[in-house]
TrEMBL record, chains A, B:
Transmembrane segments: none annotated. The keyword Flavoprotein applies. The active site is at residue 478. This is Alkyldihydroxyacetonephosphate synthase. Its cofactor is FAD. FAD binds at residues 135-141, 204-210, 217-220, 268-274. GO terms for biological process: lipid biosynthetic process. It comes from Kocuria marina subsp. indica. Substrate binds at residue 417. Belongs to the FAD-binding oxidoreductase/transferase type 4 family. Residues 103-284 form the FAD-binding PCMH-type domain. GO terms for molecular function: alkylglycerone-phosphate synthase activity; FAD binding; oxidoreductase activity.
Length: 558, 558
């Protein structure tokens, strides 16, 4: 097991990696202004596991003997820290629960299968012994897809897929790779890159999530505009069930009834365990460049991105931060230490001055990043086409400096949540998608809903947003919100704020989630999103596939 | 009902429209050479319905009263000709059965609902009275998705969706249109075109198939490389069930568990009846041009198309005919009558001479058509990029003349089947998809399988193919085969030939169908294609959704 990487038991990422604001001079004043908190320096480098009060494992010797017989004694654990690592994902609610010792049902055992046959044997045993089986990839879920039901009385087994982490084959003619489900993002890219290929799938969780997890939760990455959402990327797969393995051969497209591929993608462990996937891979692009643009207003920035898609300019991503997020982004810039950095900072001040002179309301400005990939000629042409549209919407092209910065720090954001929790502050995210015609409404509704929720809990709260993915008919809006929580009722407050934002999505014609999955967190909105009859159809599928409710019970619909 | 268009009861398309070879001087010699048939001039302009021996309707007065109560007496019919129009699709097997009076179970009544509420009432009645309900769009299925099971003892109701044929709304900002399911292709495009939009979905069946039918059978169109398969195009939908309506709001992408949208697409009536769809629409392109290229060999042509996708050149389609189909295509050219036509024919002869001089084997040549759409600048640039790749694979650019010809006659092919049947000849199609690396194997395997089947039935048969759709990881191969059938055992021979080709697909890693659906025709290969466990999962879904098996029983899996 030693070679399976795990995140901190109490927070995001690996021990020793943190968010730090000491080198970001504008950050503390920004937070003070936004939510009224005077930040203290980080004190928590780690949390001693001795402080954790872990409910005892209820795994019987019989069950452990069976599991050891399948995967070997060295790959079955009842160790308390490993059980806690596997007890939940990394949603803010789960992090709060973990830090407060509010453990409900913790897995009674963790098993690390080393082959598909072992996974089959585990699922067969699960049915035979009426165990609950929860597949575990990188443990990065923020929708509570990994947490067992609090009132679960059966023995719970977390099936950690981390040993199944190899790129098995690359079909270079077809641009397809066959890869085991348990591979973490960086390990997979390393194996692909070594042969000149990339999957192009980079969710915020990239470093701590797995290919199988992405498929099981309908993930999207930062570059999905070009490479596709995971449902586009996955062409074939193997999913183990107690009665056999669903084998979907890799096909560019097929007309074989309801799509089994699309039933399994997003199924969050409720139909079985995905062991292997055949995915589209791409040659590493010759060039990769991120250019920043500043727009006078949110509306103009959205219009520009919609026009990029209308003009069918092939972009790797086109991201727009709203005015709040633009301000936040500027506040998290590191202090300029190099001569070049200082010059850049001076240049930025000058730019702001120019914009004010142009009559811009600098509080309304929205920064946008567009990523271009391809041959030098492709990149040059597309940059020109984008600049033309952006400028027609009043944008100023800031160039590649801020873009490169974005590319460097893109995976850092989740660490911020742990830092804020130490300051008794919730920082969390909620994301959605809607047709272009509804985006402004959805955006405003989420802001209004958050504001009302903050008033209800009597707090000064913050909300900001960016548009992260665009499609022919619409886009994804990604919101980040923050407020100081009350130690006496952290869960109640969280429920009020998060629910208000989620409710505003479905009420304004948007979806409960564009790419974070459902889990337990988003389940209350399933009927409103896909209709009661849609939920009934899905329940029928789950019940038929898992009559004993042994596979990750309670997720998506219950 | 009068305003619902129907196809010939005995053949493809509308009465009075036929395939004619009289103006195609090379056609008869070609057919003689290929399958040994001396063509006779067409004698059959129509078939007298008086020759049909139609099994009597078994619909009880009770059931008819219920249906009349729902949709009005004028929208419920037990008329024999209408029942025969609705008894089957237009597969060659069904056409043969129809012409030979081999009717098994014919719908006992046809109902034309005028609203979604009526559809709900019909389905509720179906469950209450244990009726079999078969939704009917344009009746163009060639996978036997519309034919009732031969041993069905319950009353069968064909639900013709033809009155639900309106474009309800266009969201011009989002490029989305909400359209009723029963609209025929041309009627829909007319409504969309009038406002400057197009769906861009043009299956061979376009004139005689409906939007709802396309969704229910996972259709692709000739321009799907650009506009997407129907599963990409459909963003939202409504599907009626007896217990309520599944309402999926229009979303560019969503992460709400297994995809209900992708479960309903391809469901061929087994989950309920689709009444309304929200689909991606596009502005009519400024330019639309089809250019023809001649390649020395099939392999070089395939490589070129793969390289177009690798280079991510946005094409509307890139089609390649193999050597056999290229020869066929040349044989179906009309005799040149105009001066321009005669010059073109002379030019063609000269071109052939040039190619022979270059050392080409003119029997191996493959014609390819590529369609470009966009601004004049887009079209010019993409043509240049395609020509560069094509030429590197040895191609000669033939220009837009043959391309325009292709665009004009693209919907004519299905009529050929009726003409051939009159000549005791089966002409039919079988199509598949596979990764790029397997295409040559799949192509050869289908040829070999057909040849062996022809030997088995003791006939001289023909097979030809084109690559019709391309994707990042693979493509669709579309085969046409022909042989003279024996009047004593037409079904047995057909079964041998068609099955051999289908079996060769799945044996060589390709799918049983890329876009014709499953129905009954392709059902024998479901377990081999999606694995026994995949079929079991699908059966579980169908059984849960329709415990009484009232909705198009026996289709896809049984």
């Amino acid at each position: 097991m030693a070679h399976v990487k795990h995140q901190k038991w109490w927070g995001w990422g690996e021990e020793g990696v943190f968010f730090d604001y000491q080198n970001k001079p504008a950050f503390a004043p920004f937070v003070k202004n936004a939510i009224g908190v005077s930040l203290r320096p980080r004190e928590r480098d780690t949390v001693d596991f001795a402080t954790a009060r872990v409910p005892a494992s209820t795994a019987s010797e019989d069950v452990l003997t069976v599991l050891r017989g399948i995967s070997g004694a060295e790959h079955v654990s009842v160790d308390d820290e490993l059980r806690i690592v596997h007890w939940a994902g990394k949603s803010v609610l789960e992090l709060m629960q973990t830090l407060r010792n509010d453990f409900a049902r913790v897995p009674d055992a963790v098993v690390y299968p080393g082959s598909e046959d072992e996974v089959t044997a585990i699922l067969t045993a699960a049915v035979e012994h009426d165990l609950v089986v929860i597949p575990f990839g990188g443990g990065s879920s923020i929708s509570r897809s990994l947490q067992a039901e609090a009132d679960e009385t059966r023995c719970i087994v977390s099936v950690d897929m981390g040993r199944l982490n190899k790129v098995l084959e690359i079909d270079e003619t077809s641009g397809l790779a066959t890869i085991q489900a348990g591979v973490l993002g960086p390990d997979m890219e390393e194996q692909l890159n070594a042969r000149g290929w990339t999957l192009g799938h980079f969710p915020d969780s990239f470093a701590h999530s797995t290919l199988g997890g992405w498929a099981a939760t309908r993930s999207s990455g930062m570059q999905s505009d070009k490479y596709g959402d995971i449902a586009d990327i996955v062409r074939g797969l193997r999913m183990v069930r107690p009665s056999g393995t669903v084998v979907l051969r890799s096909l560019p497209s097929t007309s074989t009834g309801p799509s089994l591929r699309e039933m399994i993608i997003g199924s969050e462990g409720r139909l079985g365990i995905i062991t292997e996937l055949t995915v589209q891979v791409h040659r590493l692009p010759q060039e990769h460049e991120v250019i920043a643009y500043m727009f006078p207003t949110w509306q103009q920035a959205l219009t520009a991105v919609r026009q990029y898609t209308e003009a069918e300019i092939p972009l790797t991503f086109a991201r727009v931060s709203d005015a709040h997020e633009t301000a936040f982004s500027l506040a998290t810039q590191k202090a300029a230490t190099s001569v070049k950095g200082k010059l850049a900072a001076k240049g930025q001040d000058a730019l702001w001055a120019v914009m004010r002179k142009r009559g811009w309301d600098t509080d309304a400005m929205c920064i946008s990043y567009v990523c271009f990939e391809g041959t030098p000629k492709d990149v040059a042409e597309r940059k020109k086409a984008v600049a033309k549209i952006a400028k027609a919407q009043g944008a100023v092209v800031l160039g590649s400096g801020p873009g490169a910065l974005y590319d460097q720090k893109k995976f850092d954001t989740p660490h911020l949540r742990d830092f804020l929790l130490e300051q008794n502050t919730v920082g969390d995210v909620s994301e959605t998608a809607a047709p272009w015609s509804r985006l402004t409404t959805v955006h405003k509704a989420a802001y209004d809903a958050a504001q009302r929720a903050y008033e209800r809990i009597g707090k000064t709260g913050w909300i900001m947003s960016h548009m992260s993915h665009s499609y022919h008919s619409g886009a994804c809006l990604y919101f980040t919100f923050a407020y100081v929580f009350d130690d006496e009722k952290p869960y109640e407050e969280y429920e009020i704020v998060k629910s208000a934002i989620q409710q505003s999505f479905v009420d304004s014609g948007a979806t409960l989630s564009h790419h974070h999955g459902v889990g337990v967190e988003h389940q209350p909105w399933m009927e409103q999103d896909v209709s009661p009859e849609g939920v009934a159809l899905m329940k029928g599928l789950f019940h038929a596939a898992d009559p004993g409710t042994n596979f990750n019970p309670g997720k998506i619909v219950s």
